[in-house]
């Protein structure tokens, strides 16, 4: 194949900015929180929504301590209850005991994010089990666009509009066919810097909710994948010759040379890993003892963020309006581990490249004629190394397809492992070795490899606060 077809694909500015966030939170809070359910039916009285000790600042402060850089709020879930006083429905906080001012949870969260320096995003469920117009085509789309417009014009800058394909029957027994392109146009017009995630063209789902990632995660993938993600269930409608090979986010290989060889069009469509700190997405008291530990969350973080993906971690507030102490403890422990990971790297080393000038803090690019690009690393002192953190210059596409790492132990070179992709970031852990020299050999790349950053992890015992 003409590999330049792939290397011409690069992220948009909004995608590049999103990728730098790496780790952000999901707040599932709403009517389901009060009724101890995951999917409500939209029949509960607005009076049921009554958090008696609401403390939004404590939510955001805790998420910031965990090293999250942004937050997405479930402004409306499938039950249709709105966490802001929408002008287009009575089924909202304005008719709750909190009223318009105290009850505008969207305003409280967006302002708290600004206070603590986090970006703010919104989730607006396309399925609305309370709306009478659901299933009536354009009538419902108008309703949805009106609510989306409220969120995008009244709460400051929005970094992300998170969309899923949840779709069920309305009261009339009809299923709504969503006008996705109209939704996208509204977001692009009102919040041009916001990414559209999951059922959108900017960021795709990893394919599971367990927090697991692929062995090789590609951001350059077939354009057909963006079209499949806006369909809640895939079925063959007609034999048009294109149905024979469906590709979805659940497939293991999305962007290797063999996968993209015959594709007509490619796009930059990076991955988001979505998971919850608990078993469910909304708070349930019977899960208080099932909260993921900081150690488990740290492993998920390293694999997701260090596997060319972002990590979206759900943290559900309690019916009272606080975060449970078990969740807070895990999140604070996670933050300590992430900070230690960032800080515990070798400071003093220099690199000799087989081609191209390698300068720390600058972008390195091997020459096209270099058939075996190699980086020789020399540490000022002997170090015990347990991993390498690499970042590609993704503004120049994703290029690295296979690299190997070696450490010099005594007079011999020890093979420490290999991996296929790097992308935005690769956290490559290996057995600890004491060494003063390491080599990174790029066995296969698309034209040439690039690096925007290179760090070496010093062996560290992470305190177990769990």
From TrEMBL:
Residues 45-336 form the Glycoside hydrolase family 29 N-terminal domain. One of its GO terms (cellular component) is lysosome. InterPro entries: GH (IPR017853), Glyco_hydro_29 (IPR000933), Glyco_hydro_29_N (IPR057739). Its EC number is 3.2.1.51. It is an enzyme of class 3 (hydrolase). Keywords: Glycosidase, Hydrolase, Signal. One of its GO terms (biological process) is fucose metabolic process. SUPFAM superfamilies: (Trans)glycosidases. The keyword Signal applies. One of its GO terms (molecular function) is alpha-L-fucosidase activity. Pfam families: Alpha_L_fucos. Belongs to the glycosyl hydrolase 29 family. This is alpha-L-fucosidase.
């Amino acid at each position: 194949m003409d590999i330049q077809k792939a290397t011409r694909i690069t992220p948009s500015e909004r995608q590049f900015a999103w990728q730098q966030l790496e780790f952000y939170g999901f707040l599932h809070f709403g009517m389901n929180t009060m009724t101890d359910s995951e999917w409500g039916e939209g029949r509960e009285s607005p009076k049921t929504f009554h958090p008696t000790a609401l403390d939004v600042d404590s939510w955001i402060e805790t998420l910031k301590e965990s090293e999250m850089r942004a937050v997405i709020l479930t402004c409306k879930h499938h039950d249709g209850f709105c966490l802001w006083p929408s002008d287009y429905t009575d089924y909202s906080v304005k008719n709750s005991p909190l009223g318009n001012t105290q009850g505008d949870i969207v305003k409280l969260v967006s302002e708290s994010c600004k206070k603590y320096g986090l970006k703010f995003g919104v989730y607006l469920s396309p399925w609305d089990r309370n709306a009478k117009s659901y299933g009536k085509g354009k009538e419902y789309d108008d309703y949805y666009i009106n609510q989306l417009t409220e969120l995008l014009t009244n709460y400051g800058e929005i970094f992300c509009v998170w969309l899923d394909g949840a779709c069920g029957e309305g009261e009339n027994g009809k299923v709504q066919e969503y006008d996705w392109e109209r939704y996208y146009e509204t977001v692009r017009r009102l919040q041009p810097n916001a990414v559209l995630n999951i059922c959108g063209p900017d960021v795709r789902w990893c394919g599971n909710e367990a927090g697991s990632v692929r062995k090789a995660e590609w951001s350059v993938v077939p354009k057909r994948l963006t079209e499949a993600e806006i369909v809640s269930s895939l079925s063959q409608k007609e034999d048009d010759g294109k149905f024979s090979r469906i590709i979805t986010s659940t497939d293991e290989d999305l962007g290797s040379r063999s996968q993209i060889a015959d594709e007509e069009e490619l796009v930059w469509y990076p991955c988001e890993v979505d998971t919850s700190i608990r078993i469910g997405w909304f708070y349930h008291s019977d899960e208080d003892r099932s909260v993921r530990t900081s150690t488990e969350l740290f492993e998920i973080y390293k694999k997701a963020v260090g596997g060319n993906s972002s990590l979206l971690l759900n943290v559900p507030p309690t019916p009272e309006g606080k975060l449970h102490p078990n969740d807070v403890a895990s999140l604070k422990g996670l933050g300590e581990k992430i900070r230690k990971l960032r800080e515990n790297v070798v400071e003093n080393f220099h690199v000799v490249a087989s081609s191209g000038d390698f300068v720390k803090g600058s972008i390195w690019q091997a020459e096209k004629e270099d058939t075996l690009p190699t980086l020789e690393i020399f540490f000022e002192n002997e170090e015990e190394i347990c991993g390498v953190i690499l970042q590609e210059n993704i503004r120049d596409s994703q290029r690295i397809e296979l690299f190997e790492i070696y450490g010099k132990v005594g007079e011999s070179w020890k093979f420490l492992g290999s991996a296929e992709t790097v992308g935005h970031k690769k956290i490559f852990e290996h057995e600890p070795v004491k060494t003063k020299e390491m080599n990174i050999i790029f066995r296969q790349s698309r034209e040439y490899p690039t690096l925007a950053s290179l760090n070496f992890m010093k062996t560290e015992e992470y305190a177990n606060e769990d």
